[in-house]
């Protein structure tokens, strides 16, 4: 989880969350065949297509902080995805990316 998001989840008494975190970050994100960058791009596309902007608020800053995607690559991602997810979701993604890039650049 530290590699994907830059932080770790606190120990939880909740088995569901603990098992999910262990499996997702211990098994799925670390499988061979795709880089973390590849997985991040796929996830951003899925989240944008479903309008899950709250999770994009986690993924986009993590991609910037981890050096997986540059601001220009994120902007290009929004342009590309808009043509597949539709204008309302794509324009919302564009605005969100610009806001998160500005926050990242302010440090």
Question: Can you characterise this structure?
Answer:
It is a single chain. The protein has helices spanning 2-5, 15-28, 36-50, 53-65, 71-85, 87-106. It is mainly alpha-helical. The chain folds into 2 domains: 1-31, no CATH class; 35-106. The chain is globular and about 40 Å long. The two termini are 22 Å apart.
Which helices and strands, and how do they pair?
Layout: H1 2-5, H2 15-28, H3 36-50, H4 53-65, H5 71-85, H6 87-106
Helix pairs in contact: 3-4, 3-5, 4-6, 5-6
Domain Carboxymuconolactone decarboxylase-like: 15-88
Pfam family, one: CMD
Protein name: Carboxymuconolactone decarboxylase family protein
Keywords:
107 residues, 2 domains, 76% helix, mainly alpha
Oligomer: single chain
What is the share of helical residues? over 70%
Structural class: mainly alpha
Q: What is the number of beta strands?
A: 0
> What is the number of independent domains?
2
Based on CA inertia axes, which overall geometry fits? Answer: globular
**N-end to C-end Cα span:** 22 Å
What is the N-to-C succession of helices and strands?
HHHHHH
Radius of gyration: 14 Å
**β-strand amount:** under 5%
Mean residue pLDDT: 91
Characterize the main sheet.
none
Query: What's the helix count?
Result: 6
Instruction: Name the poorly predicted regions.
Output: none
InterPro entries: 4CMD/NDH-1_regulator (IPR052512), AhpD-like (IPR029032), CMD-like (IPR003779)
Pfam family, one: CMD
Protein name: Carboxymuconolactone decarboxylase family protein
Organism: Actinomadura keratinilytica
